Amino acid sequence: MAEKEIDLRRLVIKAFHMTDVEWGEHNNITTDGHMTVSKEMIDQLVAQDDCIEKIDIQIIKPGDHDRWTNTIMDIIPISTKVLGKLGEGITHTITGVYVMLTGVDVNGKQCHEFGSSEGKLKEQLYLNRAGTPGDDDYIISFDVTFAAGMGQERHGPFTAHRLCDEFIQTYRDKLKKFKGDKCTERHEYHDKVRPGKKKVVIIRQVAGQGAMYDTWMFPDEPSGVEGGRSIIDMGNMPVMITPNEYRDGIIRSMQ
Fold first, then answer.
1. Residue 145 is inside which H or E element, if any?
2. pLDDT tens digits, residue range 221-238?
3. What whole-number distance in Å separates Cα of residue 18 and Cα of residue 15?
């Protein structure tokens, strides 16, 4: 008689769709789909580190992609843990909006490793892919200008990611308090062991050379920075993660 499958952990992701994004006095989101973006944090963020000269935040409406962009360092969803740790419990996430982190230094040197992606946004960003905005999604552009040469030093790009994470955290703190029954989508995922069945391991090679070519793992928040560690600082050694940890945003590209 075959053994019963074992349910190791359960992850519930509740999505709240934003239909309207506009400027406001503070960063805010509501369960009825309204989001406001503020520049009130910029001076405070820039003052944290001398490697940052300027931060510019813009709201890019769906279809408004015929515009200049500096090199895209990351496309970041806005998600937060409500219950449990990454890979289990409950996660709240926003749909309809992504944050786009870009970077260049004061001399116009793009923040990139093997190839830059500055130019017309519509030519540099593929839409409707896993991890990228869709045709109807808003993009919040978080554009960082580094001090001369700091876009090519490890400290510079990491600081840009950290400051962008602080900006996103203001939304996460509000998203945590949303009532789950107000969500627009609900998805449930289980990590299961099936005794007697084949064991499957997926191997993914990630970046770990340094500077703009790094991978961040085990943050406190989905796709976050705070609390995480660099794969380089872990010695570029193999790390085991569960399917639900991967699904919940335990790996963040720092390129």
1. strand 138-146
2. 999 999 999 999 999 899
3. 10
